[in-house]
Design brief:
The protein contains 7 helices and 10 strands. The protein is of the alpha/beta class and 210 residues long. Strands 2-3-1-4-8-7-5-6 form an 8-stranded mixed sheet. Strands 9-10 form a two-stranded parallel ribbon. A hairpin with a 3-residue loop joins strand 7 and strand 8. Helix 1 crosses helix 5 and helix 5 crosses helix 6.
């Protein structure tokens, strides 16, 4: 079934954040369509599993099911731990209180270990999505170039490496070839998301290091 999803981009400049999100949804559903009603907001119509996208995406803050209000997701969150979070894209925009957002739900408010978050994005428009932020804990700092066993100053940082992997539109279990592996930044991120990386480099020291 086709659903509508909200993606809140991270806000870093350039075209990579938007291109990465679109590539990921197209990876899982080639018929996905996209709207960009304002900067940092992408509305997606797709049959893709949003959790698959959320677990892989680098340059997004939230990915989830777009709803008109919280009661549209009442069955999904019934008996679950929930919280709300507001993202203001324009200064001075007023927001509803968490109680207003969650009114009418049979769920428990839990700020420490929520299973679901109602992510309210306020810009020129108002957007509400049911998300699972825990899916997006990527551990970037653990894979920074200087923390890896082999270092070179030209190494690509993990967030950009992940985005480049996602742009290749490979699904879990598929092979991704990187013929210019360098220190292994892209193969590392490919393995992190369940791809089978194959890598090579012209320089022997880089190949051994990677």
């Amino acid at each position: 079934m086709t659903n509508r999803f909200l993606v809140l981009l991270s806000g870093e400049g350039g075209t990579i954040p938007s291109a990465e999100t679109k590539a990921l949804f197209l990876t899982y559903d080639p018929l996905s369509t996209f709207e960009s009603p304002e900067p940092r907001v992408i509305i997606v119509a797709s049959r893709a599993d949003p959790r698959s996208v959320a677990r892989r995406v680098a340059f997004a803050r939230r990915v989830g099911l777009l709803v008109g209000d919280a009661t549209d997701a009442a069955e999904l969150v019934r008996g679950r731990r929930v919280m709300t979070r507001t993202f203001r894209l324009i200064a001075g925009v007023e927001s509803e209180s968490p109680g207003d957002v969650l009114r009418g739900l049979d769920a428990t408010v839990n700020l420490e270990s929520p299973e679901y978050e109602f992510s309210l994005v306020l810009g020129k428009g108002r957007y509400l999505a049911v998300t699972r932020p825990s899916d997006m804990s990527q551990g970037w700092s653990l894979r920074r170039p200087r923390r890896r066993a082999f270092f070179h100053p030209a190494a690509i940082f993990p967030k950009l490496s992940r985005a480049l992997v996602n742009l290749a539109r490979c699904r879990e279990g598929e092979v991704m070839l990187d013929p210019f592996a360098g220190t292994g930044s892209l193969p590392i991120e490919a393995a992190q998301v369940g791809l089978s990386p194959v890598a090579a480099d012209q320089t022997a020291v880089m190949t051994r290091g990677a």
